[in-house]
Amino acid sequence: MSSRCADGDRSFVAELGLTVPERVLVVCTGNSARSQMAEGLLRHDGGSRVEVFSAGTHPCFVNPYAIEAMDEIGIDISRHRSKSLREFDGWSFDFVITVCDSARESCPVFPGVKGRIHWSIEDPSFVSEEERVKAFRAARDELRARLGGFLAELNDPSQ
Hints:
The chain is α/β, with parallel strands linked by helices. It has helices at about 5-15, 35-45, 65-70, 100-105, 130-155, and strands spanning about 20-30, 50-55, 95-100, 115-120. The relative contact order is 0.18.
C-alpha cells in the first residue's frame, strides 16, 4: 500500500480487518531540523503502527546537523526533503504534532484529527557553532523521549 493512499483506501484496508496505521504529521517552521528528526524517529521507532510525514510553515532545507545527529543513532534522514504544509492540503491525519511555538500559532486545522499535540522543543539551530552538535543531540533525545510516550499511548490508550 502506498504511503500516500487516499482515505478511501484506508477505509477499505480497515474493512478487510487489517490494521490501519495512525497517520501523523509533524510540523515546525522550517521543516529543517526538529520535524525532520521527529519524522525519522517516529518512522523508525513506530514501525508499521504509524504512517508519518513532516512539513513546515516556511520550509527551507534539511539541516546537515539534523542528518548527522540522526546518523549517530543509525537513522538515515539524508534523503528527506523540506516540505510545505501546502503539500498536505486535503489530506487527513489522525495526529498533528507541532514541535515549535511558531508552527503551533500558524498550523492550519486538519478536519478529523484525533489529537493535536504541541511540544515546545528548543531550536538547535540558534546556538553558537561550538554548541550546535550538542544542541541537535539534545533536541533529538528530547524528541525521542516524547515520541516514546506518544507511541506508548497509542499501544495503550488508557495511559
